[in-house]
């Protein structure tokens, strides 16, 4: 059985006051809750890790640098993230790829750095609207998988999130058929590259406008093992029903 994971990406939202959401979320978690990871902004990582202790909620960062340390003003290394008590880090989010000019090779190095620090890398891929409209989605996905995934992935250190860029923060989501097509494709690619023992066990998340009212449908897809949730993860009252839908899927 693959592990199910609900990951919340707070992006650049939240201050210390937002940590109360963790307490609320804990009180709303179903008894059969899947893995739950909250990725708050970096300044909250230490406090979030403390607040999440013994709650069943894990904490992740939204990005890391590919180097261990050095003259990289403003950057944060994977070891620093692990030092806060966090267990996960998102790498290659489309907002990082677009706004910070991150490419597949950078994402690959960041994932490797994450593993070296003992973190699980949540590696993001996804096509732009023009790729989708030109019917190039699977080519783009294949290229991102080939370029962004290091060679030594394991089911313990890697999660892949498929996030069509046009679905992020827009309220638009692909049809269930489109989600199934991409997730089945990703599964077959990683099984081919890494073997069934690994490829069949890596959790695949869908991300992009996941909300309480569409989550259950998305989780019907056999190769959707969870969600990477932006806006609807900010409030425990919105995120909890998504977690419950995943638990019951
Ligand atoms: P959204 O963001 O749920 O607000 O669309 C998802 C993401 O960017 O991870």
Write the topology of this structure.
Elements: E1 5-9, H1 20-28, E2 35-39, H2 45-52, E3 57-61, H3 78-83, E4 88-91, H4 94-99, H5 104-116, E5 120-125, H6 129-133, H7 137-148, E6 158-162, H8 176-194, H9 196-199, E7 204-207, H10 215-218, E8 226-229, H11 236-247
Parallel strand pairs: 1-2, 1-8, 2-3, 3-4, 4-5, 5-6, 6-7, 7-8
Helix pairs in contact: 1-11, 5-7, 7-8
Structure write-up:
- With 249 residues, the protein is an alpha/beta fold.
- The protein has a single domain, classed as Aldolase class I (TIM Barrel).
- 39% of the residues lie in helices and 15% in strands.
- It contains 11 helices and 8 strands.
- It has helices at 20-28, 45-52, 78-83, 94-99, 104-116, 129-133, 137-148, 176-194, 196-199, 215-218, 236-247, and strands at residues 5-9, 35-39, 57-61, 88-91, 120-125, 158-162, 204-207, 226-229.
- It has an 8-stranded parallel β-barrel, surrounded by 5 helices.
- Helix 1 runs parallel beside helix 11, helix 5 (104-116) packs across helix 7 (137-148) and helix 7 (137-148) runs parallel beside helix 8 (176-194).
- The longest helix has 19 residues, at 176-194.
- The chain is globular, with a radius of gyration of 17 Å.
- The two termini are 13 Å apart.
- The mean pLDDT is 97.
- Bound molecules: 2-phosphoglycolic acid (PGA).
- 2-phosphoglycolic acid is lined by residues 9, 163, 168-169, 207-210, 228-232.
């Amino acid at each position: 059985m693959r592990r199910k994971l609900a990951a919340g990406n707070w992006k650049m939202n939240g201050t210390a006051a937002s940590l109360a959401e963790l307490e609320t979320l804990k009180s709303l978690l179903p008894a059969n809750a899947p893995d739950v990871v909250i990725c708050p902004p970096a300044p909250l990582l230490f406090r979030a890790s403390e607040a999440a202790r013994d709650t069943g909620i894990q904490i992740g960062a939204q990005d890391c640098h590919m180097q261990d340390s050095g003259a990289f003003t403003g950057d944060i290394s994977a070891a620093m993230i692990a030092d806060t008590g966090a267990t996960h880090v998102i790498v290659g989010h489309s907002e990082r790829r677009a706004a910070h000019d991150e490419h597949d090779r950078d994402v690959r190095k960041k994932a490797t750095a994450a593993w070296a620090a003992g973190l699980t890398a949540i590696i993001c891929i996804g096509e732009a609207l023009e790729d989708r409209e030109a019917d190039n989605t699977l080519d783009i996905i294949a290229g991102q998988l080939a370029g962004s995934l290091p060679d030594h992935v394991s089911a313990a250190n890697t999660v892949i999130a498929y996030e069509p860029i046009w679905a992020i923060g827009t309220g638009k989501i692909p049809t269930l058929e489109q989600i199934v097509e991409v997730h089945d494709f990703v599964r077959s690619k990683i099984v081919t590259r890494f073997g069934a023992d690994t490829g069949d066990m890596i959790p695949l998340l869908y991300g992009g406008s996941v909300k309480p009212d569409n989550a259950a449908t998305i989780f019907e897809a056999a190769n959707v093992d969870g969600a990477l949730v932006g806006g609807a993860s900010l409030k425990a009252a919105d995120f909890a029903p998504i977690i419950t839908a995943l638990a019951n899927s």
